[in-house]
Queue: 4 jobs
Job 1
Amino acid sequence: MAEVRLEGIGKRFGTNDVLSSLSLTIHDGEFFTIVGPSGCGKSTLLNLLAGLDKPSAGRILFDGEDVTEQEPRERDVALVFQSYALYPHMRVRDNLSFPLRVAGRTSGAGRRSIEAEVRRVAGMLGLEPLLDRWPRELSGGQRQRVALGRALIRRPRVFLLDEPLSNLDAQLRAVMRAELRRLHDQLGTTMIYVTHDQTEAMTLADRVAVLDRGRIQQVGAPRELYDHPETLFVAAFIGYPRINVLDAVLADRRLRSGSLDLPCAPAAAATDLRNGARLMLGIRPEHIRIVPKEGAETSPETKGRQVEGVLRLLEHTGGQTWATVEIGSSSDPPTVVGFVPAGVSLRPKQAVTGLVEVDRFHLFDAETERAIETPNSV
């Protein structure tokens, strides 16, 4: 196990800065996920940690030891990536034992310890019945378990995982997520996991770093990122369906956006908002209830909390139904997504009303896209 610390890491390819002044501490034994869109620099960062590439600036430290210039074999790390990279001419048993044989444990007690380690890892991953099979005889999930086993057998101080589940179907990904988390809890080894899939990041990690264009946007526990995003990018990237974002204006301590007129009392000590301030209003889909317009509740309590529009799409996801609603009358009207309560029946092109929970929204500065903390923030 090891604490991993990055200090001012930068990486440049030609004139393109892929990573910029990136500093981060990953605790000993932590399951840490780095998430971001394609091209944000997350795989480049993992390559730097593995020693496959060198940073243009900054230092990498494992347990306080500067490993920036060390070769991969000197760092005691294991890397599992999207391609399983199994040796097709070796059975599962030999694929698992290969790292130990390369390390020189090939005779006498060394050979016996290799056999014991293969049995240990195979038992941990449920691979005992597959030890004499060829890679071509394995399913995708079985191949991925062998790739994990080949990393586990070395007992490295840091595991690096670069989108290892992206080749699997949705159901198998869910199974492997649970298996990875169980393995981490059992081993207690530092794991650094890179993915573009925010579901993987949120379900696996102790903490998550959100990366965009080579810069860290926010680091925190999964729930913290969801409930308290520090930037509009984090709010939009974390969570499905995506957060609704509407232009808004502050007027007389109220937040106005189209038909919405919501109470807003920013903490004076933390913000300097004035009447007419341009803001971005973020509302999670689970905080907008979509019902038929003719059956919508009308009362003083709901005034200013409703948006009206036309239903364009229903998305059934099992226990929940999401509705995409066009609001406004322009040729390219904005849309909001909300949830359909159980027992409510809707159809496309139907006139609907969305009721916003008054105390569940996020505010962002329209220019900086930084979050504005208010008593109404989730």
Job 2
Amino acid sequence: MAAEDGQTAAVETATAHVLPGGKTIRFTQTFVIETRAGQVVRLQAYTPYGPHGLAAIVLGLMRLGNEIRSRTGRSSKSATS
């Protein structure tokens, strides 16, 4: 996708890497490219890594809770009316 200024573009691509030992990892990557006078002046890659540290733990626990509730048929909201 090119920006209106004609100097910036974003590209998303599906990536597959084969690691030593044969394991394949697949993920999407987004690249933002900035140009000036026809030359690339900046290329930034963004990968879909999640949060780290305490935020990752909290998010993981929330997802686990949601998964357990969906498997048992329970709602995360109390049934008061």
Job 3
Amino acid sequence: MSKQTEHREKANPKKLHRLLVVEDDEITQEVLGLFLQDIYDIDYASSANEAIELVRANDYMAVLMDINLGRGKSGLFVTNEIRNMKGKERLPIIAQTAFAMGGDKEEFLEAGCDYYLSKPFTKTELRDVLSEIKEKHK
């Protein structure tokens, strides 16, 4: 088990929604945790295989997916795997990436992501997307 998986926030009964953060950079994981840990239970995956395993085993409100996982399989590979999992096909996936070239947003949305955030993004921008997901999936 990786350090990131062990870093899972303790379940809090007041937090009704659980997120998966797929991010290979530990500093970015920590920042995202600081943005969200007061209102969400968070699991962390630092690799494609770890993310796939966690999605299969758990129910999440959404997945915050880094597109460039650095080594091995990409976030788009993980997105495709999730879209092919029975019962997980409609799980909201938020692409988060430093790729901000023309056409990237469209490419990621066409590849199965539901939302797109270009790094760096603010706490407010992230929370706004998550609030929209909560409203749509009540």
Job 4
Amino acid sequence: MKILILAYYNPWISGGGHRPICLCEEDIARGDEVVFLFESDSEIDQMKKFSLFNSHRLRLLRRDKESGKLIAMHQQAEIFETEDDILEKWRPDYIKSHNPVESFLGILKKAKEKGIFHIYDQMDFWDGFPVQPWGKDVEKEYISMADQCITISEWLAQKNREITDKEFKVIPNAIKNAFADKLFMSYEEVKGRSKRKKKQIIYSGAIWPEWFEMDIIEYLVEKFPEYEFLMLGPYLPCKDEDDGRNIAEIIKNLEHNYNIKFLGQVPHEELVSYLRQANLAIVPFVVNEVTKACSPLKCFEYLGAFLPVVSTNLPEIKNYPMIEFACSKEEFANKVEKMIDHKITENEYKMMRNFTEENTWKARSQEINNIIIDKN
């Protein structure tokens, strides 16, 4: 099949582990051809580092914000000069849109006139974002034009009922099969982690003010000087979403403590070694509409590494195995103390392994592909 993917950022933004590229990789592995059209110029200089950049099945195009012209990101995309080239000469079997980008409304309207099937994949609760560089108040038009809507969480599916009668199919985030294979540990290896003298607590993901509860980290670092805290993920916003809030000073002050390290953005594949070395993983999120709506990618990867997890009270992960929940920083600390020395049983190990095997991007991609098969 031929798939046109629409997103605001390039596929490998923030290290290459986000939903659009994870699904795109599975499309290409299945033998589909993909045109990936995006708008932002953030981190486009990093794209060549990823092997899929050179795939003959992938054509990367950026739509210039000012001129509206299509810019080929590599040689195989040079056959396209206009949106009509994509819709008429190449003609996708369907469109998958990830961000409600205002400037893509034109191509979506043309596609609808031509009878091209459109799946809108709602990746977040966009109304909760302080900065929306793709355009505000656009999502309703995407929902209206879509032939099928997907969302990442039950909370968001319920929230959408306030604005539309359209049904949203819930397809949460997942873990890459190859990533899970690299994370895999035998039960004996997992048991061996508890024997390590220096206990390490890991967090992976963005450290944004609207998501991240810094008070919890400050409290944990002070309460547990004997544990090492490893924070992996960007804490400086990209230029598109910079709202002027600067947490770099908070990070700097925290780093005065010898037991915490902020490593910044790490390429997704490099997370494997860090996750395998940890004893416990955390999700210290603020609980608000943005985080209630989310399907935390990190949880699939934490559990893929057979790590016990302590999280704030997020509804979407309530039924995931080996996650303890806390409603205050004090309770969070108590759960950390409890779980960091927890000896995972063989039954718990099997539960985490089964969870990982059932929640892969390959399976998620097939769910989306089945929508197209069924409509035909």
